[in-house]
Design goal:
globular, single chain, four-stranded antiparallel β-sheet
Amino acid sequence: MVIVVLALAVGAFFAGRHFTNASSTTTTTSTTIAPTTTTTSGTLSTDCSPQDFSGAFVQGQGAAGTIFASVTLTKKTSGTCTMKGWPLLTLQDKLGAVLPSRAIDVPANKDGFSFPTAAADAMPATLHVAQGSITDFSLAYSDVTTGATACPNAVTISVQFARNGAAVTVTPSYPLQICNNGQYWVSPLY
C-alpha cells in the first residue's frame, strides 16, 4: 500500500513538471476542427490552405510563470500564397476534447504584453509563402496555478486559417499546462 501511494505521488509530481527541448519538432496532419470554445479577436486573411503546410512546435524559454514558444509552418506544396494576420488556434487534450481558451492578440491588445522576438510584436504584414518557405507565430501562456483551479493539459494545437476549416495539427513534445482559464497570447504570422 505504501509503495502504491509513493508511486502515485512521484507520478503526480513529474506530471506537473515541464521538460523542455530547445527544438522539438513533430510530424503533422491536417484535420477539420470546430473551435466552439476558442476565441480570438484577430483575423487572418489568406488564400493559403492548411493542407499545404506542415507544422513544428518549438519550445522557447519561460520566466516568472510565463512560457514562450513558437510554431513554424512550412509550405510543402508548389505555388505561392499570401497570409496576413493572426492564426486561429484550438487546444485539445489527450482525448481530443477542445479545451476552453481565450487568445489575446499581440500587438493588438492594450495590456502591454510583448514577446522576446521583435517580429512577434510587429503589426501583421502580408507574407508571400512559396514552396519550402516558412512562416512563424509566437505564443505565450501562464503555467502558474491560481487557487484550486486546475490547469488543463493541451497535447495538440490545431492551427486554422479560417473558422471551422481544415487545420495544421501540431503536437508539442510535452503537454502545455495553460492556466489562467486558458488565456494565452498569440502573435501575428511573421
